[in-house]
Every structure is written in structure tokens, then in C-alpha cells.
Amino acid sequence: MKEYTLGIDLGSGSIKLTLLERDGTIAAVQGCEYPTVFPHPGWSEQEPEEWRQALKTALSGIFETGINPAQIRGIAPDAATHTAVLLNKDVKPVDRAILWTDQRSAEETAFVRREYGDIIRRETLNTPTTVWTLPQFLWIQKHRKEVWEKTRYVVFAKDYLRFFLTGELATDEIDAAGSMFYDVIKRCWSKTLCDVCSIPMEWLPPVLSPTDEAGKVTREAAEYFGLAEGTQVFAGTTDTVMEQLAAGNVESNHSSVKLATAGRICVISPEPKPSPFLFNYRHVVEGLWYPGTATASCAASFRWFRDALGGLPFRELDEIAGNIPPGSDGLMFHPYLQGELTPYNDPKLRASFIGISSSHSRGHFTRAVLEGVAFSLRDCMATLEEQNLVMKRTRIIGGGAKSPLWQQITADVLGLTMEKARVDDSSFGSAMLAGTGLGWFNSFREAAAQCVKLDSRVEADTEKHKVYSEQFVKYKTIHDILVPVYSA
């Protein structure tokens, strides 16, 4: 009987499952969407209960392929960092979860930077922005006191999902680091940082390594989800590091360019690179880190454009944008729908189209969006270069990377040659992690060598790169001019 591991990715808009055979072959993939709520401009929330329902729906699709639940030997979850779930004494959510893209805690962020910036940077190797849990908790204490008063436990998104499977509360050290009350040097919860936001340390879960067993599927979970009782469930970790594993990025100077809801460029490094504009996390490969940048609205910009203005499916929008020359005949887009992270950390920035003329068509607007996101990633790449991080081998990942046009635009803007793995979803990485936890692979490097296959390669066009380099200067100038407008 064949044996499998199951990787579960709790994404920004959907859950995705990858079933992996012992030889590294993907046996099945399933997904299920759930909504994000935007109660006010700059806010982003989700209902944790909908994650559980989505997992049940996606699992039913896995089992419809003929897979016997008893064949699944191990399960590992992942999710975006910084998405905390506050639970009451009955271990039920007190409120919707605030997502990392949420910008409401700008005032609290400014406060902790001013009053506690040095100690936070010393213990976390990161700089406070609105994405972190610590300033979000200060906002909750101020504006939703009834939520805070009912809270007794704090976990993170993938931990809450895993709780449904095992009945056990725990987290892993990479997700813990995303809270900003975890000391990444001592590798433990920090009382000093907990005191900053008045969080009782007894609310916080045990911290495990990603490949530690976090429990087994309970009888109740087996009945609800259709899984086999007693299946091993591993701690799992965050989606970004699982994407690195899925892309085969397990050595220093391996790098990734991510076109997903948010855009990221990460470079694997033997050491962290503390900077106000970089996120520093440990890799699952011991001794490595993955310093990374973030642009807040990447594929989210394209999705917004499709829904609000484009009026066509993604594939058709790609086709008409492909007929437009590089530079979109002077039309330019800044993708600041939710403010911007690297290299500005400015929640007040907003998106804009600049240079509209009567000659511009839907194809121009579409291409301008794709180019604008690529320019924001070039902004990110400059920050990495300032830290002397070298991208010796780059792989493009994320849902946006399925578009050959967007791949090429990104390569041309960045001036990079980029490879694409056949599968790069974080749920694939989590399935590999579960296999490593089971002992199927002796190490993460061995897992990557056996499971990761390349699909394609895209090289930058020298002439187009020159065009985009000239336009990037204008992109930066427009940003600088509009900053005081949005600030006011």
C-alpha cells in the first residue's frame, strides 16, 4: 500500500492541500477558498471557523480520488506569519483574526518604535511595522477591550487549524518569531517583549521545532475530517520558509522572487541581516536564515484590477497586455493598495495610475499593473543589495509566476535570470517537511534533491531591461512627489 504525507497551506484566500508519495511524486492537490473581510480601508480580517470548513471541503476532494485515509502517515500545516488567533477559556476564537496585511496599527507601531525600538530590534532582529502581532495587540487593547478581556490563549493561524486535528495547542519557533514577543537569539518567549503589550506569558503556547510531533489526529477530528485516527501531525511552520523548501532553496545565496498576494524577494544567508526594511527569520535548515523583503500588494493588485476594472479573466487580460510595448506607452501604476512595506514601511501610501491619456486601452492598464508590481520588487531588490546579499541562483514562485508574461516582465525589470520549479506551493514544502519528520528523508536538503523538479527558465532581455531601468527612475520620482500628499 502506498504511503503519503499531507501538506496543508492556509493561504491568504484559500486553503491548499498537497499529497506527497514517499518517492517524491505528488499524488493529489486540492483547494478551497474562503473570504477576507475589509471592514475599513486598510483593514483585513478572516473568520477562523471558515478555515476548518475549508479544510474539510478540500480533504473530501482528496479522498474522492480514491486515497485511503490510513495511507496518510503524516500531516504538516503552514500559514502566513503574524496572523494571531485569540482564544477564550473554552478555546474558542474571541474575534476574527487580523491578517498581516492589515494596516490599522500604524499609531501603535510608531509608539513601540519610539519607546521600545532598541530592545525589540535586539531581541527579534526585526523592526516594528504594522504587520507584526505586538502592535496589533496594542491596538486591540485600546479599541476592543472586550476582546482582550476574554482572551486566555494565543496561537497563530496554522496552530489553530492543527488544534482541530490534535486537540493540542503549540506553535513553532519561526511563527513565534513573527509575533515580535519571541527572543530569536535565546530562542524562547521574551518576558520583556510580552510586558510591552501586557500579554501574560501563560497565554502563549509551547514552542516546538517544525518537525516535532505536535500530536495525533483525535477520534473527533477523524470523524469530522475523514482522516484516520492516530495519524501523526507535525508542528509545521510558516508559508514563506516552506516555499523556500518547495523551490529547493536550501543553500546560501539561493533566492526567490515571489508573485503571490504579497510579493517577496528572499535570499538564503548564513546570518540574519537586521534592517528596518527586511524580515529576518530562521530557515528550517539549521544554521541558515532567509532575510526577505515584502511588497504588500502583488497578485492582490492584479486581482483587484481584474475585479474592479479589468472585467476579463486573468488569461485574457494577459493576452491583451502582451500586445502592449514595455513601458505601457507612459502609463504607470504604483501598487500601494494597502500601503507599502519594503523599502518605505509607510501604511499611508495608496495606489495610483499616472500618465493616463486617451490612447490608453484596457491592455495598457493591465500591463501597467504587472509592471508596477515588478517595479515595487525592484525597490525591494535594492534593499537586499544594500545588505550585500547576493542572489546567485533565483527561482520565481507564487501564483503570479504561472503567467509567462508576468515572469518575463519581472525578469526584464529586475535584470535577472530566473528558474521556475514545477511545483512551488508551500503545501508541497509542508508535505516534504512531514516526510522529513517521518524519516523518509534524512534532511531537508535530501528532501529538496529528491522532490523538487524544474519546469522552465526565463532570462532578462537586455534592451527591455534598459527601458525599464529608465522608467524605474520615474517610478521612484512619482513616489517621492506623492508621499506628502498621502501623508496629509
SS strand fraction: 15-25%
By secondary-structure content and strand pairing, the structural class works out as: alpha/beta
Please report the distance between the alpha carbons of the first and last residues. Answer: 65 Å
What is the CATH superfamily of the largest domain? ATPase, nucleotide binding domain
Q: Tell the overall outline.
A: globular
What top-tier CATH class of the largest domain fits best? Answer: Alpha Beta
Quaternary state of the chains? single chain
Tally of helical runs: 16
Question: What name is given to the CATH topology of the largest domain?
Answer: Nucleotidyltransferase, domain 5
Helical amount among residues, as a percent range?
25-40%
CATH architecture level-2 label of the largest domain: 2-Layer Sandwich
Q: Would you count the extended β strands for me?
A: 22
Notes on the structure:
It is a single chain. The protein has 16 helices and 22 strands. By secondary structure, it is an alpha/beta fold. The strands form 8 sheets. Strands 1, 2, 3, 5, 13, 14 and 15 form a 7-stranded mixed sheet that branches. A 3-stranded mixed sheet has the order 17-16-20, covered by helices on one side. A two-stranded antiparallel ribbon has the order 4-7. Helix 9 crosses helix 14, helix 11 crosses helix 12 and helix 12 packs across helix 13. It is globular, with a radius of gyration of 22 Å.
